[in-house]
Structure formats: C-alpha cells, structure tokens
Amino acid sequence: MNRALLERQLLLERRGLAVPRAVERLCALQAQYSPSPYIALWSRVSGFRKEQLTRALEQRRVVKSSLFRVTLHITSARDFPKFVAVWLAGARTAFPRVPPAEIERLARRVLTAANKRALTHEELRELVPELGRFQWRVRALAPLVHEPPSGTWQFHGRPRLTGIERWLRTSMADATEGAKHFVRSYLTAFGPATREDIIRFAGIRVREVQPALDALEPLRRFRDEQGRLLLDLPRAPLPDGDVAAPVRFLPKWESSLLAYAPPERIRILPEKFHKTLIKPNGDVLPSVLVDGFVAATWLIDRKGRLELTPLRRLTRAERSEIDEEGERLREFVVDQPGASANPA
Fold first, then answer.
1. What's the confidence (pLDDT) of residue 341?
2. What is the number of alpha carbons within 13 Å of residue 152 lying toward its C-beta?
3. Tell me, what's the pLDDT at 342?
4. DSSP symbols for 180-233
5. Model confidence over 91-108: pLDDT tens digits?
6. What is the pLDDT of residue 338?
7. For 97, phi and psi rounded to 5 degrees?
8. How far is 268 from 290, CA to CA, in rounded Å?
9. Lowest mean pLDDT among 148-152, 223-227, 336-340
C-alpha cells in the first residue's frame, strides 16, 4: 500500500512531465501556503523550476481555487470544471436553514458578478448578506478561480477571485460527469482506497460519490488487514513492497498525508507521529519520507539554513541521504532568482 501510493504520487522516481500533466497525475495540490505546490512538484518532477508553475498559473493551464474541504488547491485547468462541479453539489447543502432555491439564486448572483470582474473576498461576502454568519462560505456557492499572483511563490497578499467563464472560457461541468472524473482521478493518484477515504478527501457526501463508483464498474476490490473494502482502478500500479523508496521532502499540507480518513494515513504516516505532524488547528508540518514513511520534519530558516527534526532514530546512511536531498532542496528554495529564504 505504501509503495502503491509512492508510485502514483511520483515519489519513487521523479518524472519529466509538464506542470499541468504532473498536477493531473497528483489529482490536486494543497495550496493554502503558496510555496507548498512548488515544493511538492520539485520533489516529483525532474528539473522542475519555480517559473514553470508560475507560468502555468499565468497562462491559465493550472488554477488555484477553493475546492475540496473548502480549502485551497491547485488543479489543472482541464480538471477544475469537473472537480468543482462535484464539490459544489455537496458544498451548497452546508448552509443551515437556507432553501435550495435560495442557494441557487445566490450562486447565480455571485457567478454573474465574478464573471464581469475579479472580486476580493470582502466584495464577494457583500453580495450575499442573506447568509449572515455564513457569508464566509460564499466561496462554496460558485466556481471561482484565484487570479495570479495569488498562487505564485511567496504570495501573501489579498487574493482576487473571478468566475470560471471569465478566466477559463468554459462553464462548470455536469455534476454526475464531474463525480466520475473526480473518483477516477482520486483513485489514480491515491488508490487503493475506501469509499470513506474518497469522501473525506473531497469533503462531499456519499450521494455525490456512490453513483460514480457504480458507473465506474468494474473496479478492483481488496480487503485490508482490518477487513475494510478498498477500491481501485483496473491495471493501476501495485509495486512490490520491497521496491526501494528514496528520501523525499514534502511541503506543508502535503496532499498524500491528507488523502485518507484515519486510520488509513498510516500507509505513509506512522500512527505515533500523527499528532506531531498534524496539529489540532489543522496545520500539517513539512515532512521527510525515509523508506517511504514520515521520519522527520524540516524547515528552512530566514538565513537559508535547513533545520531537520528527526521523529525516530536515523541511521548514518539515512542521515547522509537526507542531507544530500536536503541540500538540493535548500538550493531550490534559496538560490533561485526571486526566491525568499523562508518557505517553511
């Protein structure tokens, strides 16, 4: 299971992929912290440079948006209309005591305004005073995209959001087709997985997922040691457990750590390190994989020095491999033109 995840997440061997294709292979990249998608791609794509992701955002080949679990993600421009369709189908139900017809009316109001010009979060909230204390969830009403420079390396300003038609010259997909595409993409990136894993990753309901699972039959089925039913795509890779796994540095809010409902996270995150890595406020620390499992946390300080905190005893050979890969990461973060020295 560990090696299957690493293979599908491009963590066994870096690949020479264009940024949109790499993002599609990974389903979606967490993007609450602007350097995270850059570091995620650096660990997976051979020869990756910061300007490649920045250019893909500016050229509208990938997009940043509020998406799964009402958190920020980067997805390909091709995937976004489908992903957002299935996510919004569930997200629009999370407004207590607001009738569906009213939600639909407010969604049309937001999208119409955002398709005319980019808006700040404050301007979007002002469009839906009817939602009261739930105005912050305006981002869960319509398919909205962050305009660059939001999403680019070390951006910390006030983002401006615009509508899908204005930015991508397309509309949101049908929710049923979107669900099938999402489930296929999720299993490609994270399978084998349980139905609960799929639901938890997206922050949606069984009713949005089950028809898609039925439509994708025949799926492969497995039982894990606890008897849970695991689903997977036919012919998806399942490497042997003894395949060598190199040291890899993962960013804050790494998607492969959040792709499963507990306790399935143990396939990459040992249970004894769970509370150390995933904080009560939802923060997920940047981590280091050793032999495929989280074994340390890391940061690069303001002077550009890499600081490592082991979570278990490391052998001399493991520490040497970590130091070599860590120096390559430090150079990527600090030495490239325009880079800040404090991405972690």
1. 34
2. 18
3. 41
4. HHHHHHHHHHH-SB-HHHHHHHHT--HHHHHHHHHHTPSPEEEE-TT--EEEE-
5. 999 898 899 999 999 999
6. 41
7. 65, 20
8. 10
9. 336-340
Higher pLDDT, 274 or 338: 274
Q: State which amino acid sits at residue 67.
A: L
Using CA atoms, how far residue 138 sits from 83, 86, 110, 156, 318, in Å, is 18, 17, 8, 21, 47
Q: DSSP letter at 97?
A: T
**How far are the Cα atoms of 161, 170, 299, 332 from residue 142, in angstroms, in the given order?**
11, 14, 36, 36
> Which long-range CB contacts under 8 A does 217-224 form with residues at least 24 apart?
219/187, 220/192, 222/192, 224/1
Q: What is the chain's length?
A: 344
User: What is the spatial distance between Cα 91 and Cα 84, in angstroms, rounded to a whole number?
Assistant: 10
Report the pLDDT value the prediction gives residue 335, as an integer from 0 to 100.
Answer: 65
Mean per-residue pLDDT, 45-65: 98
Q: Is 339's pLDDT higher than 60? A: no
102/248 Cα distance (integer angstroms): 48
Give the tokens for residue 261. Answer: 């409902």
- Over residues 133-150, mean pLDDT: 96
- DSSP 8-state symbol, 27: S
Q: Which two tokens stand for residue 76?
A: 């390909």
Beta carbons of 164 and 146 less than 8 angstroms apart: no
Separation of alpha carbons 214 and 135, rounded Å: 35
Residue 296 is classified by DSSP as E
Whole-number pLDDT of residue 336: 54
Q: Is 193 exposed, middle or buried (0-12, 13-18, 19+ CB in 10 A)?
A: buried
> In this structure, what token pair is assigned to residue 273?
């390190």
Scan for tokens 């991405």, then name that residue. Answer: 343
The pTM of this model reads 0.94
Tell me the domain boundaries of the chain. 2-175, 248-335
pLDDT tens digit sequence for 307-324: 999 999 999 999 999 999
